[in-house]
Design brief:
alpha+beta, Nucleotidyltransferase, domain 5, 5-stranded mixed sheet, 3-stranded antiparallel sheet, 33% helix, 22% strand, elongated
């Protein structure tokens, strides 16, 4: 923690006990002759009036995947205000971490890739348009189960191939369904194997020279879709700005828990 510097005193402020008569959440403040400053200033906790122990309790229960209502009940805080606000703060931190780590993240070895739709569109455009459909492109590294997810506007080769090249090391073995956008992967220095889900969920390839048998399936990425959709099923309005935060949370939990 950096000690605040007072421009009037021209020296660092000191950490002192807060006046007990005041009804503040923290017992310590930064103080000098001219003013006092909260220890929370310029920190993740600056916007909250909860005590630090209550904040840590909220974060702990949120990581346990409690619903918003149960979290508020456990922490004895408002469901609509403080609980909702703090879960948004936590997701924003997760989102920032994921955005930073995604810049250099590389996966290798045996990789499964797929796309899946989140949300829904009303049939025949009837009724109130309460949600939107968002396509997500996913990649999972079999050895580590590390997951990478991207919301995409299109599922074309022009959109998906650059994402694959950015995150999957050349020479890796990629397993996918028979979606046309993946046709050129063998020309991009990958070993690409497909399974046609309209006829089967597993395809077996055999090298006629070496006799090597390769079982092709996308079970791991399909399992990732199941857990991801279960996580966001409570979202009734799938706005992109909100959805990206939940998507970042899914990635963060996959990498850290």
């Amino acid at each position: 923690m950096e000690t605040p510097f007072c421009q009037n005193c021209q020296r660092n402020m000191s950490l002192q006990q807060r006046n007990k008569k005041t009804r503040k959440t923290e017992q310590k403040v930064w103080r000098c002759k001219h003013r006092e400053v909260s220890v929370r200033n310029h920190s993740f906790f600056s916007k909250s009036h909860l005590t630090l122990s209550d904040i840590f309790m909220v974060v702990s229960h949120y990581l346990e995947c409690l619903s918003l209502w149960r979290l508020a009940l456990k922490c004895n805080i408002s469901h609509q205000n403080r609980a909702l606000t703090w879960t948004s703060y936590i997701r924003e931190v997760m989102k920032n971490f994921v955005e930073d780590s995604m810049k250099t993240m590389k996966i290798r070895g045996h990789i499964e890739i797929d796309e899946s739709a989140f949300g829904h569109r009303n049939k025949y455009h009837r009724g109130a348009q309460r949600g939107n459909q968002v396509w997500v492109f996913g990649m999972v590294e079999r050895d580590s189960n590390r997951l990478i997810l991207y919301p995409v506007e299109q599922r074309s080769a022009d959109t998906l191939i650059p994402i694959i090249k950015r995150h999957v090391e050349e020479g890796s073995i990629i397993f996918s369904d028979s979606w046309a956008a993946y046709v050129s992967l063998n020309d991009e220095n990958y070993n690409h194997y497909t399974v046609c889900h309209t006829t089967s969920f597993q395809q077996v390839y055999k090298n006629t020279i070496t006799g090597e048998r390769i079982d092709v399936n996308t079970n791991m990425i399909e399992g990732a879709w199941f857990h991801a959709k279960k996580h966001v099923q409570k979202i009734h309005v799938c706005r992109l700005t909100t959805f990206e935060g939940h998507l970042a949370e899914i990635i963060w939990r996959n990498h850290h828990l």
